[in-house]
């Protein structure tokens, strides 16, 4: 028997509908493209939202307690005041998401920072090159739910070509701000470093611990 399931906004408008034999809510959510959807106050407790596209969705005050959000695209989503307690956010993209007032207890307990303690080496891509960085012991550092990290300051050790060979360049500009220049041998520091780890795309020097990840980014 074919079953049609609709996903509606709090105002009653149909955001998405899906029909198939023996359809389930889980199947419908897996098929749904909820990018930019208005889901304010929605009750999605325990929902299977693995890999769901919720980019730019308005989830303000939504109940996502215990929801499976592994690999979900929440980039730019409004999660202000949302209940994410016990939600599985492993691999979720929260870049530029608004998590102001969100309840993140339990669900993020396993999301340990990707950044080591003390001084360590990091890599970032800039101007189609790889910048090898030394993050000093006293630098502030953070990571959210992905492998991307941020720090308040770092020394430029070397500029490399993507293939790993040393570049002849002594300086390259940031891809985000052409006036922010990475110069070999010089330390760069960012003013107003955002210490909220969940603001993944906020102020700071963005980098990866793995050179391979920086190349692929």
Automatic annotation (TrEMBL):
Pfam family, any one: Pentapeptide
InterPro entries xrefs: 5peptide_repeat, DUF5758, Pentapeptide-BTB/POZ_domain
Signal sequence bounds: none
Source species, domain of life: Bacteria
Cited PANTHER family: BTB_POZ DOMAIN-CONTAINING PROTEIN KCTD9
Protein name: Pentapeptide repeats family protein
Organism: Parabacteroides distasonis str. 3776 D15 i
